[in-house]
Amino acid sequence: MKTRITELLGIRHPIIQGGMHFVGLAELAAAVSNAGGLGIITGLTQPTPDDLAREIARCRAMTDRPFGVNLTFLPAVKPPDYPGYVRVIVEQGVRVVETAGNNPQKWLPELQKAGIKVIHKCTSVRHAKKAESIGCDALSIDGFECGGHPGEDDVPNMILLPRAADELRVPFVASGGMADARSLVAALALGAEGMNMGTRFIATKEAPVHHHVKEAIVRATELDTRLIMRSLRNTERVLNNAGVERLLEKERTLGASLTFADIVPEVAGVYPKVMREGLVDAGAWSCGMVAGLIHDIPTVKELVDRIMSEAEALVRGRLASLLDRD
Ligand SMILES: Cc1cc2nc3c(=O)[nH]c(=O)nc-3n(C[C@H](O)[C@H](O)[C@H](O)COP(=O)(O)O)c2cc1C
Question: What spacing in Å lies between the alpha carbon of 198 and ligand 1's midpoint?
Answer without folding.
Answer: 5
